[in-house]
Amino acid sequence: MEKEILIKYLNNHCTESELSEVLDWVRKSALDEEVKRWSLETWNSYQESDITEDDGNFAAIFEKVKERIDRNKSNEAEAGKTVNLHILLTWATRAAAVMLIPVLAFLFYTLSEKKVEYAGYAHLATDSLEVMAPAGSKTIVQLSDGSEVHLNYGSKIKYPHFFSGNSRGVTLSGEGFFKVAHNPEKPFIVKAKNLNIKAVGTTFNVLAYPDNDHIETTLVSGKVILEEVEKGGMIKSLGTMQPGLHADYNIQTGSVTCTEGPIEKYISWTEGKLIFDDTPLLEVAEQLSRVFNVDFEVRDEVKGYKYTVTIIDDPLYQILDLMSIATPITYKILPRIKLSDGTYSKQRIVIKKRS
Protein backbone atom coordinates (compact mmCIF):
# COMPACT_ATOMS: atom_id res chain seq x y z
CA MET A 1 0.00 0.00 0.00
CA GLU A 2 1.23 3.51 -0.79
CA LYS A 3 2.12 5.86 2.05
CA GLU A 4 0.01 8.60 0.52
CA ILE A 5 -3.14 6.54 0.97
CA LEU A 6 -2.31 5.91 4.61
CA ILE A 7 -1.78 9.63 5.18
CA LYS A 8 -5.11 10.37 3.47
CA TYR A 9 -6.71 7.79 5.72
CA LEU A 10 -5.27 9.36 8.89
CA ASN A 11 -6.70 12.68 7.77
CA ASN A 12 -10.07 11.07 6.91
CA HIS A 13 -9.75 12.03 3.24
CA CYS A 14 -9.60 8.64 1.53
CA THR A 15 -12.26 7.21 -0.79
CA GLU A 16 -14.24 4.05 -0.15
CA SER A 17 -11.92 1.99 -2.36
CA GLU A 18 -8.87 3.45 -0.57
CA LEU A 19 -10.49 2.66 2.78
CA SER A 20 -10.94 -0.96 1.68
CA GLU A 21 -7.26 -1.04 0.73
CA VAL A 22 -6.25 0.27 4.19
CA LEU A 23 -8.43 -2.28 5.97
CA ASP A 24 -7.05 -5.09 3.84
CA TRP A 25 -3.49 -3.89 4.52
CA VAL A 26 -4.06 -3.86 8.31
CA ARG A 27 -5.46 -7.38 8.15
CA LYS A 28 -2.76 -8.95 5.93
CA SER A 29 0.46 -6.95 5.96
CA ALA A 30 0.63 -4.72 9.05
CA LEU A 31 3.08 -7.02 10.85
CA ASP A 32 5.71 -7.15 8.09
CA GLU A 33 9.08 -5.76 9.19
CA GLU A 34 9.28 -3.31 6.30
CA VAL A 35 5.77 -2.09 6.98
CA LYS A 36 6.61 -1.65 10.67
CA ARG A 37 9.49 0.62 9.75
CA TRP A 38 7.75 3.00 7.37
CA SER A 39 4.50 2.90 9.40
CA LEU A 40 6.38 4.26 12.38
CA GLU A 41 8.00 6.93 10.20
CA THR A 42 4.60 7.92 8.84
CA TRP A 43 3.05 8.06 12.29
CA ASN A 44 5.90 10.17 13.66
CA SER A 45 5.40 12.63 10.82
CA TYR A 46 1.69 12.88 11.51
CA GLN A 47 1.07 16.13 13.37
CA GLU A 48 -0.71 16.19 16.72
CA SER A 49 -2.52 19.32 15.60
CA ASP A 50 -4.22 17.26 12.92
CA ILE A 51 -5.65 14.95 15.57
CA THR A 52 -6.86 17.84 17.66
CA GLU A 53 -8.39 19.54 14.62
CA ASP A 54 -10.18 16.36 13.59
CA ASP A 55 -11.78 15.96 17.04
CA GLY A 56 -14.44 18.49 16.08
CA ASN A 57 -15.02 16.72 12.75
CA PHE A 58 -15.65 13.38 14.49
CA ALA A 59 -18.70 14.71 16.28
CA ALA A 60 -20.06 16.28 13.10
CA ILE A 61 -19.67 13.03 11.15
CA PHE A 62 -21.49 10.99 13.79
CA GLU A 63 -24.25 13.59 13.90
CA LYS A 64 -24.69 13.19 10.13
CA VAL A 65 -24.90 9.41 10.52
CA LYS A 66 -27.56 9.79 13.20
CA GLU A 67 -29.53 12.31 11.11
CA ARG A 68 -29.41 10.07 8.02
CA ILE A 69 -30.58 7.04 10.02
CA ASP A 70 -33.39 9.02 11.66
CA ARG A 71 -34.47 10.47 8.30
CA ASN A 72 -34.54 7.05 6.62
CA LYS A 73 -36.49 5.58 9.51
CA SER A 74 -38.99 8.41 9.20
CA ASN A 75 -39.32 7.90 5.44
CA GLU A 76 -39.82 4.18 5.97
CA ALA A 77 -42.58 4.77 8.47
CA GLU A 78 -44.37 7.28 6.26
CA ALA A 79 -44.01 5.61 2.85
CA GLY A 80 -43.72 1.96 3.91
CA LYS A 81 -40.46 1.66 2.04
CA THR A 82 -37.31 -0.14 3.10
CA VAL A 83 -34.31 1.86 4.23
CA ASN A 84 -31.70 2.46 1.57
CA LEU A 85 -29.02 0.12 2.92
CA HIS A 86 -26.45 1.34 0.41
CA ILE A 87 -26.64 4.88 1.78
CA LEU A 88 -26.49 3.70 5.39
CA LEU A 89 -23.56 1.42 4.67
CA THR A 90 -21.75 4.29 2.97
CA TRP A 91 -22.09 6.44 6.08
CA ALA A 92 -21.30 3.53 8.38
CA THR A 93 -18.18 2.79 6.35
CA ARG A 94 -16.99 6.38 6.66
CA ALA A 95 -17.75 6.34 10.36
CA ALA A 96 -15.72 3.15 10.65
CA ALA A 97 -12.84 4.95 8.97
CA VAL A 98 -12.97 7.61 11.64
CA MET A 99 -13.26 5.13 14.50
CA LEU A 100 -10.36 3.04 13.19
CA ILE A 101 -7.90 5.93 13.51
CA PRO A 102 -7.20 5.31 17.23
CA VAL A 103 -7.04 1.56 16.48
CA LEU A 104 -4.32 2.18 13.90
CA ALA A 105 -2.58 4.53 16.31
CA PHE A 106 -2.54 1.76 18.89
CA LEU A 107 -1.08 -0.60 16.29
CA PHE A 108 1.84 1.78 15.71
CA TYR A 109 2.25 2.15 19.46
CA THR A 110 2.64 -1.58 20.02
CA LEU A 111 4.86 -2.18 16.98
CA SER A 112 7.36 0.56 17.81
CA GLU A 113 9.95 0.34 20.57
CA LYS A 114 9.52 3.95 21.63
CA LYS A 115 6.55 5.46 23.40
CA VAL A 116 4.31 7.74 21.35
CA GLU A 117 2.38 10.34 23.34
CA TYR A 118 -1.16 10.50 22.01
CA ALA A 119 -2.29 14.10 21.48
CA GLY A 120 -5.64 13.53 23.14
CA TYR A 121 -3.86 13.05 26.47
CA ALA A 122 -1.08 15.59 26.04
CA HIS A 123 -2.82 18.22 28.15
CA LEU A 124 -2.88 15.91 31.18
CA ALA A 125 0.90 16.10 31.51
CA THR A 126 0.70 19.75 32.45
CA ASP A 127 -2.03 19.28 35.05
CA SER A 128 -1.10 18.44 38.61
CA LEU A 129 -2.65 16.90 41.68
CA GLU A 130 -2.17 17.82 45.32
CA VAL A 131 -2.77 15.34 48.10
CA MET A 132 -2.70 16.26 51.78
CA ALA A 133 -2.68 14.08 54.87
CA PRO A 134 -4.91 15.94 57.36
CA ALA A 135 -3.56 16.73 60.81
CA GLY A 136 -3.70 13.62 62.95
CA SER A 137 -3.71 11.19 60.02
CA LYS A 138 -1.42 9.65 57.38
CA THR A 139 -2.00 8.64 53.79
CA ILE A 140 -0.34 6.74 50.94
CA VAL A 141 -0.09 8.10 47.38
CA GLN A 142 0.52 5.95 44.28
CA LEU A 143 2.21 7.83 41.44
CA SER A 144 1.79 7.07 37.73
CA ASP A 145 5.36 5.71 37.39
CA GLY A 146 4.78 3.07 40.09
CA SER A 147 6.44 5.03 42.90
CA GLU A 148 4.80 5.10 46.33
CA VAL A 149 4.75 7.96 48.82
CA HIS A 150 3.74 7.76 52.49
CA LEU A 151 2.65 11.16 53.82
CA ASN A 152 3.00 11.91 57.52
CA TYR A 153 0.57 13.99 59.57
CA GLY A 154 -0.27 17.36 58.03
CA SER A 155 1.96 16.80 54.98
CA LYS A 156 1.13 17.38 51.33
CA ILE A 157 2.61 16.50 47.96
CA LYS A 158 2.06 18.03 44.53
CA TYR A 159 2.71 15.90 41.44
CA PRO A 160 1.62 15.62 37.77
CA HIS A 161 -0.93 13.16 36.42
CA PHE A 162 1.80 11.74 34.19
CA PHE A 163 5.52 12.45 34.29
CA SER A 164 6.91 14.02 31.12
CA GLY A 165 10.32 15.29 30.11
CA ASN A 166 13.65 14.02 31.39
CA SER A 167 12.79 13.80 35.10
CA ARG A 168 10.02 12.94 37.55
CA GLY A 169 9.48 15.92 39.82
CA VAL A 170 7.24 16.25 42.89
CA THR A 171 6.95 18.99 45.52
CA LEU A 172 6.78 18.09 49.21
CA SER A 173 5.66 20.14 52.20
CA GLY A 174 5.89 18.19 55.44
CA GLU A 175 7.25 14.66 55.73
CA GLY A 176 7.18 11.87 53.16
CA PHE A 177 8.62 8.39 52.87
CA PHE A 178 9.42 7.58 49.22
CA LYS A 179 9.69 4.21 47.48
CA VAL A 180 10.86 5.25 44.03
CA ALA A 181 10.31 3.07 40.95
CA HIS A 182 13.63 2.44 39.19
CA ASN A 183 14.16 4.42 35.99
CA PRO A 184 17.76 5.49 35.30
CA GLU A 185 16.67 7.56 32.30
CA LYS A 186 14.31 9.68 34.42
CA PRO A 187 15.64 10.65 37.85
CA PHE A 188 13.06 11.20 40.57
CA ILE A 189 13.34 14.66 42.20
CA VAL A 190 11.70 15.69 45.46
CA LYS A 191 11.55 19.48 45.71
CA ALA A 192 11.44 20.70 49.31
CA LYS A 193 11.80 24.47 49.66
CA ASN A 194 15.21 25.26 48.11
CA LEU A 195 16.52 21.70 48.29
CA ASN A 196 16.27 19.01 45.61
CA ILE A 197 16.61 15.34 46.58
CA LYS A 198 17.40 13.42 43.39
CA ALA A 199 17.10 9.63 43.11
CA VAL A 200 16.68 6.89 40.49
CA GLY A 201 15.32 3.83 42.29
CA THR A 202 15.60 4.50 45.98
CA THR A 203 13.90 4.35 49.38
CA PHE A 204 14.29 7.44 51.54
CA ASN A 205 12.57 9.82 53.96
CA VAL A 206 12.31 13.61 53.69
CA LEU A 207 11.20 15.93 56.50
CA ALA A 208 10.49 19.49 55.40
CA TYR A 209 7.68 21.11 57.38
CA PRO A 210 7.04 24.79 56.50
CA ASP A 211 7.76 26.04 60.03
CA ASN A 212 11.10 24.22 60.25
CA ASP A 213 14.44 25.79 59.30
CA HIS A 214 15.92 22.37 58.57
CA ILE A 215 15.27 19.78 55.85
CA GLU A 216 16.17 16.24 56.88
CA THR A 217 16.84 13.39 54.47
CA THR A 218 17.30 9.79 55.58
CA LEU A 219 18.44 7.19 53.03
CA VAL A 220 17.31 3.59 53.50
CA SER A 221 18.50 2.05 50.21
CA GLY A 222 19.94 3.15 46.88
CA LYS A 223 21.56 6.54 46.41
CA VAL A 224 20.40 10.16 46.44
CA ILE A 225 22.03 13.43 45.42
CA LEU A 226 21.33 16.60 47.37
CA GLU A 227 21.13 19.82 45.36
CA GLU A 228 20.64 23.38 46.55
CA VAL A 229 18.56 25.69 44.36
CA GLU A 230 20.29 29.07 44.58
CA LYS A 231 18.80 32.46 43.80
CA GLY A 232 18.39 32.81 40.07
CA GLY A 233 17.67 29.10 39.66
CA MET A 234 21.27 27.90 39.67
CA ILE A 235 21.76 24.34 40.96
CA LYS A 236 24.56 23.61 43.41
CA SER A 237 25.46 20.01 44.28
CA LEU A 238 25.77 19.38 48.03
CA GLY A 239 26.89 15.77 47.85
CA THR A 240 25.77 12.17 47.46
CA MET A 241 24.23 10.08 50.23
CA GLN A 242 24.76 6.38 50.86
CA PRO A 243 22.35 4.03 52.72
CA GLY A 244 22.30 4.52 56.48
CA LEU A 245 23.03 8.25 56.31
CA HIS A 246 20.88 11.02 57.78
CA ALA A 247 21.48 14.49 56.34
CA ASP A 248 20.35 17.72 58.01
CA TYR A 249 20.28 20.73 55.67
CA ASN A 250 20.14 24.17 57.32
CA ILE A 251 18.06 26.49 55.14
CA GLN A 252 19.49 29.65 56.70
CA THR A 253 23.19 28.79 56.37
CA GLY A 254 23.13 26.27 53.52
CA SER A 255 25.24 23.86 55.55
CA VAL A 256 24.71 20.08 55.63
CA THR A 257 25.39 17.84 58.62
CA CYS A 258 25.49 14.07 58.10
CA THR A 259 25.27 11.34 60.70
CA GLU A 260 25.62 7.60 60.23
CA GLY A 261 24.01 4.91 62.34
CA PRO A 262 20.60 3.44 63.16
CA ILE A 263 17.94 5.24 61.14
CA GLU A 264 14.83 3.54 62.54
CA LYS A 265 13.82 6.58 64.59
CA TYR A 266 13.55 8.67 61.41
CA ILE A 267 11.28 6.27 59.54
CA SER A 268 9.38 4.47 62.33
CA TRP A 269 6.38 6.76 61.85
CA THR A 270 5.45 4.75 58.74
CA GLU A 271 4.75 1.80 61.08
CA GLY A 272 2.79 3.82 63.61
CA LYS A 273 5.71 4.15 66.04
CA LEU A 274 7.51 7.11 67.57
CA ILE A 275 11.10 6.42 68.64
CA PHE A 276 12.82 8.99 70.82
CA ASP A 277 16.52 8.45 71.49
CA ASP A 278 17.88 11.05 73.90
CA THR A 279 15.52 13.51 72.19
CA PRO A 280 15.03 17.04 73.61
CA LEU A 281 11.57 17.87 74.98
CA LEU A 282 11.02 20.54 72.33
CA GLU A 283 11.44 17.98 69.54
CA VAL A 284 9.24 15.47 71.38
CA ALA A 285 6.49 18.09 71.71
CA GLU A 286 6.86 18.99 68.01
CA GLN A 287 6.26 15.40 66.90
CA LEU A 288 3.40 14.86 69.35
CA SER A 289 1.81 18.06 68.08
CA ARG A 290 1.62 16.68 64.52
CA VAL A 291 0.40 13.25 65.58
CA PHE A 292 -2.36 14.44 67.90
CA ASN A 293 -3.13 17.82 66.27
CA VAL A 294 -2.51 19.90 69.39
CA ASP A 295 -0.33 22.91 70.21
CA PHE A 296 2.30 22.76 72.96
CA GLU A 297 3.78 25.58 74.97
CA VAL A 298 7.06 24.36 76.52
CA ARG A 299 8.38 26.58 79.30
CA ASP A 300 12.09 27.49 79.30
CA GLU A 301 12.90 25.68 82.56
CA VAL A 302 12.09 22.26 81.08
CA LYS A 303 13.42 22.60 77.50
CA GLY A 304 16.65 20.81 78.41
CA TYR A 305 15.00 17.53 79.42
CA LYS A 306 15.58 14.59 77.06
CA TYR A 307 13.71 11.34 76.55
CA THR A 308 14.50 7.83 75.33
CA VAL A 309 11.33 5.88 74.69
CA THR A 310 9.37 4.04 71.97
CA ILE A 311 5.68 4.91 71.67
CA ILE A 312 3.25 2.62 69.85
CA ASP A 313 -0.35 3.81 69.51
CA ASP A 314 -0.48 5.22 73.05
CA PRO A 315 -3.02 7.97 73.91
CA LEU A 316 -1.59 11.47 74.28
CA TYR A 317 -2.44 11.90 77.95
CA GLN A 318 -0.89 8.53 78.81
CA ILE A 319 2.31 9.65 77.08
CA LEU A 320 2.33 12.92 79.03
CA ASP A 321 1.77 11.03 82.29
CA LEU A 322 4.77 8.79 81.55
CA MET A 323 6.90 11.83 80.77
CA SER A 324 5.82 13.35 84.09
CA ILE A 325 7.00 10.24 85.89
CA ALA A 326 10.36 10.17 84.08
CA THR A 327 11.14 13.88 84.60
CA PRO A 328 9.92 16.59 87.03
CA ILE A 329 7.40 18.14 84.68
CA THR A 330 3.69 18.73 84.74
CA TYR A 331 1.22 19.69 82.07
CA LYS A 332 -1.96 21.74 81.93
CA ILE A 333 -4.67 21.40 79.30
CA LEU A 334 -6.16 24.78 78.41
CA PRO A 335 -9.85 25.01 77.43
CA ARG A 336 -10.56 25.41 73.73
CA ILE A 337 -11.89 28.79 72.66
CA LYS A 338 -14.96 29.18 70.46
CA LEU A 339 -14.13 31.29 67.42
CA SER A 340 -16.30 33.81 65.57
CA ASP A 341 -17.12 31.32 62.81
CA GLY A 342 -18.53 28.81 65.28
CA THR A 343 -15.51 26.49 65.30
CA TYR A 344 -13.13 25.93 68.19
CA SER A 345 -9.42 26.65 68.51
CA LYS A 346 -6.88 23.84 68.51
CA GLN A 347 -6.27 22.13 71.81
CA ARG A 348 -3.40 23.81 73.69
CA ILE A 349 -1.21 22.16 76.35
CA VAL A 350 1.34 23.89 78.58
CA ILE A 351 4.33 21.89 79.84
CA LYS A 352 6.22 23.35 82.79
CA LYS A 353 8.39 22.28 85.71
CA ARG A 354 6.68 20.48 88.56
CA SER A 355 6.86 22.52 91.74
State the order of secondary-structure elements, H for helix, E for strand: HHHHHEEEEEEEEEEEEEHEHEEHEE
**SSE class:** alpha+beta
| Largest sheet composition | 13 strands, mixed
Mean pLDDT over the full residue set: 80
Looking at the overall shape, the CATH architecture of the largest domain is Sandwich
Question: What is the CATH fold-level name of the largest domain?
Answer: Jelly Rolls
CATH class label of the largest domain: Mainly Beta
CA-based shape: elongated
Q: N- to C-terminal separation?
A: 95 Å
Q: Could you explain the architecture of this structure?
A:
- The protein is an alpha+beta fold and 355 residues long.
- The protein has 3 domains: 3-120, no CATH class; 127-261, Sandwich (Jelly Rolls); 272-353, Phage tail protein beta-alpha-beta fold (3-Layer(bab) Sandwich), CATH 3.55.50.30.
- It is built from 8 helices and 18 strands.
- It has helices at residues 3-10, 16-28, 33-45, 48-79, 85-111, 264-267, 281-292, 316-326; strands spanning 128-132, 139-142, 148-151, 156-160, 168-179, 188-192, 195-199, 203-208, 214-221, 224-229, 235-241, 245-250, 256-260, 273-280, 295-298, 306-312, 329-334, 348-353.
- The strands form 3 sheets. Strands 1, 2, 3, 4, 5, 6, 7, 8, 9, 10, 11, 12 and 13 form a 13-stranded mixed sheet that branches. It has a 3-stranded mixed sheet with strand order 15-18-17, covered by helices on one side. A two-stranded antiparallel sheet has the order 14-16.
- Helix 3 crosses helix 5 and helix 4 runs antiparallel to helix 5.
- The model is unreliable at 46-55, 85-89 and 109-125 (pLDDT under 50).
